[in-house]
């Protein structure tokens, strides 16, 4: 328990560090010639970083057999939503000045905005249902609902790729990370399905012999 608390404390500080940095830079007019773009880039990047970290918890936990790591997944996921909210708010407030007409026109006409909006919307039910109370209420449906994280992460990566267009090195790094994480999950699912099928075949055979 002590190790989990220490890890959570360290993650809390690490996750808040980018926000503290951008506030410091804003205070000292050090955000460059385009402060809105700098804030948008930072918050969007950290949304993706934390989404990937959330998805990495399960493989890391299983590969290292450090099962206590599951205790930090919710915190990382909520920080991903927090930075997603900051990213979206930057767009609504600093970029569009809450002009609903312009925002809706953007969502409909600009594909990277549309898919980015989808990524953010998918995160909302994940954040709302992250509490123990919702886990109890939803039961097995909670896991089904939280598979939206895959869609949110994929949409976030596509949003970044379509936004950048030219130098794709950074968004493609996220794409590769997501692909590796999803490949691992697919491999585990196939392995478990084969084991279940083999176990189901053994049971009738043993019953017949008995």
Keywords:
210 residues, mainly alpha
Write the layout of secondary structure elements.
Elements: H1 2-27, H2 35-64, H3 73-95, H4 100-109, H5 111-128, H6 132-138, H7 140-145, H8 148-164, H9 169-209
> Strand fraction band?
under 5%
What does the overall shape look like?
Answer: globular
Would you tell me the structural class of the helices and strands? mainly alpha
Q: What is the number of domains?
A: 1
Strand tally: 0
> What's the helical proportion of residues?
over 70%
Count the DSSP helices.
9
The ordered H/E elements are HHHHHHHHH
- Regions with pLDDT < 50 over 5+ consecutive residues? none
Main sheet specs: none
User: What is the arithmetic mean of pLDDT?
Assistant: 89
Query: Which radius of gyration do the C-alpha atoms yield?
Result: 21 Å
Calculate the terminal CA-CA distance, rounded to whole Å.
Answer: 47 Å
Give a brief rundown of this model:
This protein is mainly α and 210 residues long. The chain has helices spanning 2-27, 35-64, 73-95, 100-109, 111-128, 132-138, 140-145, 148-164, 169-209.
Characterize the structure shown:
- The chain contains nine helices and no strands.
- The protein has one domain (2-189).
- Helix content is 85%, strand content 0%.
- The mean pLDDT is 89.
- The chain has 210 residues and is mainly α.
- The protein has helices spanning 2-27, 35-64, 73-95, 100-109, 111-128, 132-138, 140-145, 148-164, 169-209.
């Amino acid at each position: 328990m002590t190790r989990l608390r220490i890890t959570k404390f360290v993650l809390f500080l690490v996750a808040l560090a980018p926000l503290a940095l951008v506030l410091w830079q804003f205070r000292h007019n050090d955000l460059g010639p385009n402060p809105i773009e700098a804030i948008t880039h930072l918050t969007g990047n950290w949304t993706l970083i934390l989404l990937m970290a959330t998805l990495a918890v399960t493989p890391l936990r299983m590969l290292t057999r450090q099962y206590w790591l599951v205790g930090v997944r919710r915190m990382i996921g909520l920080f991903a939503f927090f930075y997603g909210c900051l990213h979206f708010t930057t767009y609504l407030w600093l970029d569009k000045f809450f002009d609903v007409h312009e925002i809706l026109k953007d969502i409909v006409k600009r594909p990277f905005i549309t898919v980015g909006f989808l990524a953010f919307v998918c995160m909302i039910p994940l954040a709302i249902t992250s509490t123990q109370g919702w886990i109890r209420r939803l039961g097995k449906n909670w896991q089904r609902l939280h598979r939206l994280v895959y869609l949110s992460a994929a949409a976030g990566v596509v949003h970044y790729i379509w936004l950048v267009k030219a130098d794709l090195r950074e968004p493609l790094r996220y794409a590769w990370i997501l692909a590796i994480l999803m490949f691992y999950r697919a491999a585990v699912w196939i392995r478990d399905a084969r084991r279940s099928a083999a176990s189901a075949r053994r049971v009738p055979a043993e019953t017949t012999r008995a």
